[in-house]
Request: fold
Amino acid sequence: MKILISNDDGIYSPGIVALANVASTFGDVRIVAPDVEQSSMSHAITSTRPIRFKKVVIENFEAYRVNGTPADCVALGSHTWGRVDLVLSGINLGTNLGNAVWHSGTLAAAKQAALLGVRGIAFSTTIDETKEPNFARLEPYIRKVLELLLKDKTMCLVNVNLPKKPKGIRWTRLAVGQYDGKVVAAKDPMGRPIFWFTVKPLDGEVEGTDRWAFGHDWVSITPLRLDLTAEKDLARALSLPEVPAMTPAVRRKSSGHRQKKIRKRRLGPE
Ligand code: MN
Reply:
């Protein structure tokens, strides 16, 4: 199995080595990651200039740094290595829970894989500003998550968050009820106004969500999908008289056919 590894913290992040160490017991590993930190870059791609890679030494792994985004790295890595079987992203130094998935470069690397028809799994953990996460403690859980997910061929995009001291694993949904994005005003040394787009703490967690699981020291696994269509809204809209539409039955049939084709391409031969 060919496993491509990327992240958004940059190729020299200790999280990428921790992930590569576990992944290398499942297959051949290649690291292709941004040369500098790309956190919160989400799914940006570099379209206005060329991107290139350079070989670097990351322990015993074959590794390349790229002057681009996490999504660039996965696209370039898959292109140059040929068909990869799995893309892993992380381990991000910081959680990606709930609405953080909209901004996360870590998840975007996994999403880019899913767009290319390859399974993508993103891993994130919490950090203490003063010291590195205890990756040795997390490794058995990463291994267990990979064993679980590799058995189930239907999940093409998965977001995993690891607490500091996990007590087990839980399947979860995204905690999208609250948003923690916040703009804070400040002044630069010249007294001119500047702004930080930062996060605020959220209170209360809904049981069954990723934030809840993480808050109760469970490793959270959230299966995600690429199709953002609001199915209920669409169904209602199709019944409105103002816009003539294909009949729902026709639409459903064609989309089902397409899904099947995508799934087949994504997962390749059994
Ligand atoms: Mn990051």
Remarks:
- DSSP finds seven helices and eleven strands in the chain.
- The chain has two domains: 2-174+205-224, 231-267.
